C-alpha cells in the first residue's frame, strides 16, 4: 500500500512516499508561511510527477501530515480574533492566572499578554457547584446578546470555560447551542470538549489556544483535502498529534491544540523506530530543522509522554512564564538554532 507523508516546518516542507515494493521517494520544498498548504501541494505535485515519470501509480491510499500551523499561530500571534466566555465574575481569569509566580522575588515579573484582550472577555450569568448543584441557572438571553454582539463585531471564534464544566458540562453545551442558532459563523470551543480536566486556568488557557487557532486549521485542512481530491489523491488524511499518535482531519480541525507539537513529535517517533530497528533500547534523538533543533530522550525504545505543555514563555527557561496547555505531548526540548536560523 502506497503511503505519503509530509511535514510542514518553519523553513522547509519535507515529503516521503513509500511504494508497495518498499521504494521510498524523498522530497523537499521551501515552506510558504502565508499559506502552508501551497508548499504541501507543490511538493505533492512534484512527487506525483516523479512517480508518473517512472510509470508508477500516483494514488496514495494513506496520507500522514505533520504541521506547524498551530504552534506558529500561537507563537507569532497570527490566530483569529477570539472572545472568551466564563462564569460571571471570573472574566479576569486569563490575566490573574493562578496567582503563582515563576520568580518569587522579581518585583517586575512579566507574563505573555493573553491571546484574548480584556474587552473580549465576557461573563455568563450561571453557576454550578463542584458537586453539580445548579445554584444559578444559565441566563440564555444574556448569552444570546453576547453572541449577537460578537457576530456584529466580526469575531471569528470564542472559547467557553465555565466553573466545574469539566464534570458538569450542561451549561457550556447550551452556550454552544445558543451560539449555533444566533451566530453560526463563529467557531465555538468548549472546555468540556477540548480539555475536560480540573484547574480552571489551565483548562481555560488550553481552550483559548484551541479557539484562537481553530478557524486557521479548519481552512488549512479543507483546502488540502479539496485540492488533493482534485489531484486524484483520495486517501484518508491523518495528522500527527503532539503525543505521537494520529487523528483524522475532522479531529485535527476540531481540536487543533493537540497538534501544537505535531512536527517535533513526528521526529521523535521516527527516531524511536530507527533505534528499535538498530537494536538500541535507549537513545537521545536530535532533530535539526531549518528553524529549531529538537532533542528528545527515548528510554526503553519509547519517547516519554508529558500530560501538559507550556508555550510562548516570557522567560524562555522559566516554567510558569508561558501559556499552560493540558494536552499529552512527547517530552522534548527545543532551541531556536536550526540550520536556517
TrEMBL record:
It holds the Pfam family Hydantoinase_A. Residues 203-341 form the Hydantoinase A/oxoprolinase domain. GO terms for biological process: glutathione metabolic process. GO terms for cellular component: cytosol. Residues 4-179 form the Hydantoinase/oxoprolinase N-terminal domain. InterPro entries: ATPase_NBD, Hydant_A_N, Hydantoinase_A, Oxoprolinase-like. GO terms for molecular function: 5-oxoprolinase (ATP-hydrolyzing) activity. This is Methylhydantoinase.
Amino acid at each position: 500500500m502506497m503511503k505519503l507523508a509530509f511535514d510542514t516546518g518553519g523553513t522547509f516542507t519535507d515529503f516521503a512516499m513509500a511504494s508497495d515494493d518498499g521504494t521510498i521517494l524523498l522530497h523537499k520544498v521551501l515552506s510558504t508561511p502565508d499559506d502552508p498548504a501551497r508548499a504541501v501541494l507543490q511538493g505533492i505535485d512534484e512527487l506525483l510527477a516523479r512517480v508518473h515519470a517512472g510509470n508508477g501509480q500516483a494514488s496514495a491510499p494513506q496520507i500522514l501530515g505533520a504541521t506547524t500551523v498551530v504552534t506558529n499561530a500561537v507563537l507569532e500571534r497570527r490566530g483569529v480574533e477570539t472572545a472568551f466566555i466564563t462564569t460571571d465574575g471570573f472574566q479576569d481569569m486569563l490575566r490573574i492566572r493562578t496567582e503563582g509566580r515563576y520568580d518569587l522575588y522579581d518585583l517586575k515579573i512579566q507574563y505573555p499578554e493573553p491571546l484574548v484582550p480584556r474587552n473580549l472577555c465576557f461573563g455568563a450569568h450561571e453557576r454550578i457547584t463542584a458537586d453539580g448543584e445548579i445554584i444559578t441557572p444559565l441566563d440564555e438571553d444574556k448569552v444570546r446578546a453576547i453572541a449577537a454582539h460578537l457576530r456584529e463585531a466580526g469575531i471569528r471564534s470564542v472559547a467557553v470555560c465555565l466553573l466545574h464544566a469539566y464534570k458538569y458540562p450542561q451549561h457550556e453545551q447550551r452556550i454552544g447551542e445558543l451560539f449555533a442558532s444566533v451566530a453560526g459563523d463563529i467557531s465555538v470551543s468548549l472546555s468540556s470538549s477540548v480539555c475536560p480536566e480540573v484547574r480552571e486556568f489551565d483548562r481555560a488557557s488550553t481552550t483559548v489556544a484551541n479557539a484562537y487557532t481553530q478557524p486557521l486549521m479548519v481552512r488549512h485542512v479543507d483546502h488540502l483535502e479539496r485540492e488533493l481530491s482534485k489531484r486524484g489523491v483520495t486517501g484518508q488524511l491523518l495528522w500527527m498529534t503532539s503525543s505521537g499518535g494520529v487523528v483524522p482531519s475532522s479531529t485535527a480541525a476540531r481540536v487543533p491544540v493537540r497538534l501544537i507539537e505535531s512536527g517535533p513529535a513526528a521526529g521523535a517517533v521516527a527516531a524511536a523506530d530507527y533505534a528499535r530497528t538498530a537494536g538500541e533500547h535507549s537513545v537521545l534523538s536530535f532533530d535539526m530543522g531549518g528553524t529549531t533543533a529538537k532533542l528528545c530522550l527515548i528510554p526503553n525504545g519509547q519517547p516519554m509522554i508529558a500530560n501538559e505543555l507550556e508555550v510562548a514563555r516570557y522567560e524562555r527557561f522559566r516554567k510558569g512564564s508561558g501559556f499552560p496547555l493540558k494536552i499529552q505531548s512527547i517530552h522534548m526540548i527545543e532551541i531556536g538554532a536550526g540550520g536556517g536560523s
